[in-house]
Amino acid sequence: xxVSTHQEFDVTVTAVASVGSKVAIEGGGIGFIDQVKxxxxxxxxxxxxxxxxxxxxxxxxxxREPPRLSALQKDVDIARRLTGRDAAAxxxxxxxxxxxRR
Length: 102
Hints:
The chain has two helices and five strands, in the order βββββαα. By secondary structure, it is an alpha+beta fold.
């Protein structure tokens, strides 16, 4: 499976090492999450990755083998902002932007 920068996926952790985690990408393919791109590196209240964990990730570097991913919400938010996908999250239930409501 070919992945692109800023693409989002759900993944399952398949192996854990001191440097990061190998994951299976939903829909096929594998990826790697460096230890500093997992929330447990930054928050003592988050458990370290374990085999079988499900995560939502964003692609940081599709040219590496395996592709480098991030499970940090700040990286997902940056990717959404850069691709314009964050605009959809600001829309209301009826499909109008907050500025369009009167």
